[in-house]
Design goal:
Blueprint lengths: L4 E3 L12 H14 L9 E6 L4 H15 L7 E8 L8 E2 L3 E6 L2 E4 L2 H10 L3 E2 L2 H4 L9 H7 L3 E8 L4 H8 L7 E6 L4 E3 L1 H17 L2 H4 L7 H14 L2 E9 H4 L6 E10 L1
Parallel strand pairs: 1-5, 2-9, 3-8, 3-9, 4-7
Antiparallel strand pairs: 2-12, 4-8, 5-6, 10-12, 11-12
Helix pairs in contact: 1-2, 6-9
Length: 266
């Protein structure tokens, strides 16, 4: 790939603090508050929410605390999330050498991105889709906090077949690969209704009910289904770590957004 650029933050100071010290303190607080199952097992993938940290950060803390339990070595992190601000076909990988956050540069695995672009036409460059998108960006400061050495493969989902994405991606996932899926759950429902719908969707996820989950209320359904298909192929099992909504974290229960934290283990 040529003409690589550095992707600048679009929502620092909005979704999370732009001040590095405040950002580190906030993330560390969420990680410290999370309590994981004693028998979690080797983590290979997580699902984490992507709203503003004051709303979803406590739940994201559970997912990324699970990721912090893995061995300390260089990881390739496949970061999957939905596009909210652009319409396109396929999965946009961008043309970046790094994503920057207030915590510094998060390098992109430019060789793997180039390989995927050649491997299948389901993967496209689509840098314009990344420019204002928050779904991947808000996960990166957490990744920078819990992993000391990693390379990103940023994967922003447009209109695409998640099963086909899974089949093309699975062969690239070696022992040094991790998957982070970025998704919120239901949006702007009353607290009790949101809770019922979200817990039903998470039950489908844990049970592996792929077809039912595809009709559920989650902006990141396609990345979630992609992970479900890969997990079935690899023999990974999902574990629900936390579920709450903005009604629990921010107080207003008239219209809430749901957030789940899930880990997939070997």
């Amino acid at each position: 790939m040529t003409d690589l650029s550095i992707r600048r933050p679009a929502v620092a100071g909005q979704f999370y603090p732009a001040n590095p010290a405040l950002l580190r303190k906030m993330i560390q607080g969420y990680l410290d508050e999370a309590v994981l199952p004693a028998d979690l097992g080797p983590v290979r993938a997580i699902i984490a929410p992507h709203a503003g940290y004051i709303y979803s950060g406590p739940i994201a803390g559970y997912a990324f605390k699970a990721l912090s339990t893995i061995p300390d070595r260089r990881w390739t992190v496949y970061l999957l999330g939905p596009a909210h601000r652009a319409y396109f076909s396929g999965v946009a990988l961008g043309t970046y050498s790094a994503f920057t956050t207030p915590l510094g540069e998060a390098p992109v695995d430019v060789d793997r991105v180039a390989e995927l672009l050649v491997h299948s036409d389901i993967f496209v460059r689509g840098s314009e889709a990344h420019t204002l998108e928050h779904a991947l960006e808000v996960e990166i400061p957490f990744i920078q906090t819990v992993l000391s050495d990693f390379r990103l493969v940023p994967m922003l989902f447009g209109q695409t077949d998640p099963g086909r994405v899974a089949s093309h991606l699975a062969d690239w996932l070696d022992d040094d690969a991790l998957i982070v899926v970025s998704s919120d759950l239901s949006h702007y429902l009353p607290y009790a209704i949101a809770g019922r719908r979200d817990r039903a969707l998470l039950s489908m996820l844990i049970a592996g009910e792929r077809e039912r989950l595809e009709t559920g209320e989650a902006c990141g359904r396609a990345p979630m289904v992609t992970l479900m298909d890969i997990a079935r192929c690899k023999g990974w099992r999902p574990i629900l770590l936390d579920y709450r909504s903005s009604g629990d974290t921010a107080g207003d229960k008239t219209q809430v957004v749901g957030y789940g934290a899930v880990a997939y283990t070997e």
